[in-house]
Amino acid sequence: MKNPSTRRVTCFLCVMALLAASAWSQSTTPDPQREQRIQWWRQARFGMFIHWGLYAVPAGEWKGKPIPGIGEWIMNRARIPVAEYEQLARQFNPVKFNAEEWVRLAKDAGMKYIVITSKHHDGFAMYGSKASSYNIVDATPFKRDPMKELAAACRKAGIRLCFYYSHAQDWHERDGAGNDWDFPPDPQKNFAKYFEEKAKPQVRELLANYGPLGLIWFDTPRLITKEQAVEITALVHKLQPSCLVSGRVGHNAGDYDSAGDNQISVGLVRRDWETPVTMNDTWGFKKDDHNWKSVPVLIRQLVRITSRGGNYLLNVGPTAEGEIPQPSVERLREIGQWLRVNGESIYGTSPNPFTYNLEWGFITTREGKLYLHLLDWPQKQLTVYGIRNKIRNAYLLADRGRKHLAFKQEGDPAIDFYSTSIQLPVAPPDKYDSIIALEIRGGPNVLPALAQQPSGTISLEAHLADVHKATSGSVIAFDPRGVVTGWVDARDWLSWDFRIFRPGTYDLIALTTLRRMPRAAGPEWQGGHRMLVEVAGKQLRSTMSEDGRFVDPSNPLMTYVTSKLGQVTIDKAGAFQLALKAESMEGQGKLGLALAAVRLVPAK
Ligand code: JFZ
């Protein structure tokens, strides 16, 4: 049984260092105003992020040289002096901008809200600001206010307009955070002056002049104090009580969590959270970034995030002429087509009721329904363990006629064994994600324990482990992928409680990942650790070696290394505990043991 002193370290959204101050922690007693405010957002699930500003003019190149990194950071990456960068305003004339077209594209893609950069870190306002003449109306030949035009188009189309606003970083202003090439380093700045004279006045303008807003997406809360974060959040709620504030406002002051960019939480996150995702590798337009994610990856991300209770904020970076790049348009149209058929399994749904990931895909739910998202189509039937609900009907969501799918439920409650098998047509109804709808009475009722899957495998995901810290100084934790970080003290260890339904002999496989910062010095992966596994009364000793590698199909950035830890025979069904200990840790504790999961796989 669990060690009472063990503190279950659950993988909440690990907010990266940059956001540490903005990690949002929902108080135990829900705030009724927040609950009311966030209802539309939970229904929405899918939004369009738009990064559009002066940075679209250089589009990733400065004085003939390509500038690495995300396009909207070019002023910072190339350390362009304010006097030079602000000249871009004279060239910025996005005559092809058409608010109705952009909103139509978002609506047809199935997106329910648009978050557009009203002012990014470069300090340039993309709307007619009275607080600063450094804006698109006063400083460019365009002279129009595109935010006004978007507000009108959004209102007409029933899409919520939201503004991204960089409330701390402002590289155009002496006392804004971030510019230490024209101005002194941040610690010597009078941030309060900037906050009072530009940030707050501009936030007021946005809330006063563009109609009802869905949310203000604050970002990178550098230099800002807790008082200032609370103050600007209160200002938003005072001027527009229904307007949400993103978690990146800082100091836990936001209405919901903002995950790190392109970070998808690995497990069930019991909070409201959102992940911003680039469609290629940049937010702001870059002429040479053609690394577009495929539609299968984008739809898989949408489904994966929804199944974990999050919102998916997918970005487009329009050009200096005011056009959304064609590859983005094509992908959004394809996603919209899929959502027109399958949106019921996304909008307003609740997360996967299991704490762990399913081998065959994802689950979303609503009262009376379970949606099984099959990304790879199994032969003839799908079997799911752990559903305790009595199923009343099963059909393919894409089948308008809702033709009944034959299914069988069986089990042995004495060992918590519940099996549901559904007969399937040979061909999947959808090339990206085919969904089986299960009608149930009431809400989902599933076995909460980590359990053997129909394939026979038991996957003990690291973020679901009980963490046993040897000392209060232990730094063991989890990153947003649910991978262990800081396991550098061999005295720390992990354990899992799990259930087996079929006795047998199992190979024990550890899954670890490469270091997170591929460009950092040193080995990308560290082996050699001497491991001890205790399970079903047996002890297995082994040395972590690289026995194989594979890439996560829906996260090309994630490479797993597999290591064989031995073989164990479990001769009866029931509840067991597996303890994973390190008798020695190699690598002088730098990389540590980046564990993603331990798997018991039926021995061949
Ligand atoms: C920020 C901006 O700096 C960037 O330009 C873009 O607007 C993005 C959406 O937000 O970048 C971040 C902020 C937070 C993390 C990573 C990049 N994070 O927490 O990992």
Explain this structure to me?
The structure is a single chain. The chain is of the alpha/beta class. It has eleven helices and 30 strands. The two termini are 30 Å apart. Mean pLDDT is 91; it is low at 1-28. It binds 4-nitrophenyl 6-deoxy-alpha-L-galactopyranoside (JFZ).
Key words describing this protein structure:
604 residues, alpha/beta, eight-stranded parallel sheet, six-stranded mixed sheet, 30 strands, globular, disordered N terminus, binds 4-nitrophenyl 6-deoxy-alpha-L-galactopyranoside
Task: Present the secondary structure layout.
Elements: H1 32-44, E1 46-50, E2 61-62, E3 65-66, H2 74-77, H3 82-85, H4 88-91, H5 99-108, E4 113-119, H6 136-139, H7 146-157, E5 160-165, H8 191-209, E6 215-218, H9 226-239, E7 244-245, E8 257-258, E9 273-277, H10 295-306, E10 310-316, H11 326-342, E11 361-366, E12 369-374, E13 381-385, E14 391-396, E15 407-412, E16 417-423, E17 434-440, E18 450-451, E19 458-461, E20 466-468, E21 477-478, E22 484-485, E23 493-500, E24 504-513, E25 530-535, E26 538-543, E27 548-551, E28 559-570, E29 574-584, E30 595-602
Parallel strand pairs: 1-4, 1-10, 4-5, 5-6, 6-7, 8-9, 9-10, 18-23
Antiparallel strand pairs: 2-3, 11-12, 12-17, 13-16, 14-17, 15-16, 19-30, 20-23, 21-22, 23-29, 24-28, 24-30, 25-26, 25-29, 27-28
